[in-house]
Amino acid sequence: MTEPTAPAPAHPGAPLTHIDGITGARRHFRYFDYMMAAFVTILLLSNLIGAAKQAIITLPVIGQWSYGAGVLFFPVSYILGDILTEVYGYANARRCIWAGFFALLFMVLMSLVVVGATPAPDWALASGDYIVLGHHVTAPNQAAYEAVFGLTPRIVLASVIAFWAGEFVNSFVLAKMKILTRGRHLWTRTVGSTVFGQAFDSALFYPLAFWGVAGFTHHSVAMLSLHQWELKVGWEVLLTPVTYIVVGFLKRREGVDVYDEGTQFSPFAKMRSV
């Protein structure tokens, strides 16, 4: 039995074929696998090196603005989520979300194993010199390693819950808005879906992860949640031209436009009954 091959790319000037979500879920696309790989990679990076760091930036007029460092990565994953739903349909976006979910759980498991492994004494007790905010700081290698890669159960739970809920809300809103707008005004559904998706993400992650933790007041947690939501939505707005370019390119290459009519929107729906 031969492997299914991707359809030949459509001619640049050829009209797109409108297909429903069920057909889109069963279709083999040329670039879908690459988009899913990019989505999962950015998700893992945002959680590995950005989730727990509280950073500040000084903006003109506004002054100092606090934000979670993961905001530098996460908006790109939401843009990719928008692109996946817009180009490939909700069912295929759902596959990517679940792939990211399980990849995140595997990353957490391996982080716990590696950080918890008994270190070699010569390496663990050797001190590294670091410069933090202009000050020299000395810390043993194992302590610095745990500070960067160590994961607390609370942060892990908050991250997984926020990602899962936010991504599914984002994809659901975009798919529904695409039907309502009949495929017009792409910016309304990419920005609109991000407004709702990021609201769930930010409102869940920071309170679940840091409410009551030393160094995080109730006010700072609330402000971080608000500022993270504002910054992520702002990123989406600023990168709208890029979204248009990528969506247009992928739709022309795939030759189809997917509308999720008849799609089952449950996150747990089986692929065969999308």
Structure description:
The chain has 274 residues and is mainly alpha-helical. It has one domain (17-116, 124-269). 61% of the residues lie in helices and 12% in strands. It is built from ten helices and six strands; from the N terminus they run E-H-H-E-E-H-H-H-E-E-H-H-H-H-H-E. It has helices at 21-26, 32-49, 74-88, 90-116, 121-124, 141-149, 153-180, 186-210, 218-238, 240-254, and strands spanning 17-20, 54-59, 63-68, 127-132, 135-140, 256-259. It has a two-stranded parallel sheet with strand order 1-6. A two-stranded antiparallel ribbon has the order 2-3. A two-stranded antiparallel sheet has the order 4-5. Helix 3 packs parallel to helix 10 (240-254) and helix 7 runs antiparallel to helix 8 (186-210). It is globular.
What class would the helix/strand composition place it in? mainly alpha
**What's the arrangement of strands in the largest beta sheet?**
1-6
Strand content: 5-15%
Helix content: 55-70%
Query: What is the mean pLDDT?
Result: 84
H and E string: EHHEEHHHEEHHHHHE
Summarize the structure.
The chain has 274 residues and is mainly alpha-helical. It has one domain (17-116, 124-269).
Features:
274 residues, mainly alpha, two-stranded parallel sheet, two-stranded antiparallel sheet, 10 helices
